[in-house]
Amino acid sequence: xxxxxxxxxxxxxxxxxxxxxxxxxxxxxxxxxxxxxxxxxxxxxxxxxxxxxxxxxxxxxxxxxxxxxxxxxxxxxxxxxxxxxxxxxxxxxxxxxxxxxxxxxxxxxxxxxxxxxxxxxxxxxxxxxxxxxxxxxxxxxxxxxxxxxxxxxxxxxxxxxxxxxxxxxxxxxxxxxxxxxxxxxxxxxxxxxxxxxxxxxxxxxxxxxxxxx
Length: 213
Fold this sequence. Notes:
The protein is of the alpha+beta class. The protein has helices at about 75-90, 170-180, 185-190, 195, and strands at about 5, 10-15, 20-25, 30-35, 40-45, 50-60, 95-100, 105-115, 125-130, 140, 145-150, 165, 210.
């Protein structure tokens, strides 16, 4: 069993140590109304957003007794902690998966708390809470033909590809340096755009629109 978060680019973040327990909170919404002298009455509404919370830690040293993914995949605790902070700040939903279970849902990270313990230098403990996400559907009144239902455009969980329009004097290595920070990534750009560029990576032309990621 593995606990994973997957971002809009399909990049997988696997928690190296499984939590001992996971809490999934489910509630039904109620609209409470007071009817004159008869008191309060509850009218059931839709389900509230589910919350998923658990605690674990990022170990500094690999231990096959409890670590997942192999020694080479063990993240640096500080880097992993910062990754959770990035997820917390993200405005794009993630997908949360617990393998070998039915849990596979889009979520946002709603809270993240890091804990450092004096007796365990290097390890970073954490508490995290996820809130399930679903698209909003809005009913819209149509024209003379009567009422019609119109869904709000679906929020795409995938991030849009970054593109670049070739300018005079450009080369793939120059574009890679300016846009990706590493001129050696020119080959990455070429592989993504080989159909546009052709067999010669040096034959790019002004006006061509290249996908960078």
